[in-house]
Design a protein that fits this description.
Length: about 350
């Protein structure tokens, strides 16, 4: 099998503008730092709460979902892994749109599952009916989708959940705080839906590894069967609970990112890129038919990391995380210079 390929992480001390793994350019709430400092004491000799009680309580209060419908994960990646592990035996069918988050392929390969890739429409719309027809044991929709940034309305996902009946529909909402709509409300009516959230993006806590799964208590109990006993450490639990209590901090940063996102999309279109409307903290910038691998390499040479996926569907695109206004300004200058750089004419000796 092929291992998941994470985006490049700079070495300590390396000064790069990092727009390749959709982190938040702004720091987490100062209250998080204090909570972590408080947790970093004598209590570290004790195991953490196996069901992440204080973090789950904070999530329950913020989202209005009962604690028995919430499971905490060591990043949302861990929750996705638990779901694939708990639902799929060798040969079972799992369906999701492509291109999407490539970790799904790795998780399916670990299980020996049969993958049904359902291509997105030309405008990146999710083909709901085709997904429903796949009748897979597990269906996953990343919403907003990565790397396109596009959003499927919750009512379409509700229709999909209904058609799937007993089969599980996982909606990966890692980026949903940057969008205007969420599928969390589907939980009330649809017992076959699980919603996955991450604190890595909107809450600026990628380094803490915190994720949440919302689903019917029966699904949560089933996932606990394949969970590591103490999957979140004490520092992460303290950080996660405090971050959720200071949601105003997150919302302020999200608004800043959204403003820069709209401006960035406009500028990139002005430079000749096709940019689908993004509902996430990144944009997909495409030049149909042109391999943008060399442009990504040139940007890296100039100290700016963006994400290029060397696959047939994405070769002609760059996924660019939204940074601070200053970082984006540096990026646009570098793109302009790189695209404008004609091959140097070879001087003939007289
Ligand atoms: C669509 C999607 N889901 C989940 C994740 C994992 O996030 P976490 O940091 O919570 O594991 C990512 C990370 O980039 C992602 O893009």
């Amino acid at each position: 099998m092929v291992a998941y390929q994470p985006g490049e992480q700079p070495k300590p001390g390396q000064r790069l503008i990092k727009l390749n793994t959709n982190e938040n350019p702004y720091p987490p709430s100062p209250r998080v730092r204090k909570a972590v400092a408080r947790a970093a004491g004598a209590a570290l000799r004790l195991y953490p709460a196996p069901r992440a009680d204080q973090f789950v309580e904070a999530a329950s209060r913020l989202y209005g979902v009962p604690p028995d419908m919430i499971l905490a994960g060591n990043g949302s990646d861990e929750l996705l892994a638990m779901i694939f592990r708990a639902t799929l035996d060798a040969g079972d069918r799992v369906a999701y749109p492509v291109p999407s988050y490539s970790l799904y392929d790795t998780l399916a390969a670990i299980q020996g599952a049969r993958v049904i890739h359902v291509p997105l429409e030309a405008d990146f719309a999710v083909p709901i009916e085709k997904l429903a027809r796949a009748r897979a044991k597990l269906t996953v929709v990343c919403n907003p989708n990565s790397p396109s940034g596009t959003l499927t309305p919750a009512r379409d996902l509700a229709a999909l959940a209904k058609t799937l009946g007993q089969r599980l529909l996982v909606i990966d909402e890692a980026y949903v705080d940057f969008a205007a709509d969420s599928a969390l409300k589907l939980l009330r009516r649809h017992r076959n839906v699980a919603i996955i959230r991450s604190l890595s993006k909107s809450f600026s806590l990628a380094g803490m590894r915190l994720g949440l799964c919302f689903a019917h208590p029966g699904i949560i109990e089933a996932l606990c069967k394949v969970k590591d006993s103490y999957n979140l450490n004490r520092l992460a639990l303290a950080a996660g609970a405090e971050a959720l209590r200071d949601v105003a901090w997150m919302r302020r940063n999200v608004e800043r990112v959204k403003r820069v996102r709209e401006d960035s999309a406009r500028r990139l279109r002005g430079m000749g890129f096709e940019v689908p409307p993004s509902h996430a903290n990144f944009v997909l910038a495409r030049m149909p038919g042109r391999d943008l691998g060399p442009l990504a390499a040139e940007l890296k040479r100039r100290g700016i990391l963006v994400r290029h996926f060397p696959t047939p569907l994405l070769r002609d695109a760059l996924r660019i995380s939204i940074g601070t206004p200053a970082e984006m300004k540096a990026l646009f200058r570098a793109i302009k210079e790189s695209l404008g750089a004609e091959p140097r004419p070879v001087r003939r000796k007289r």
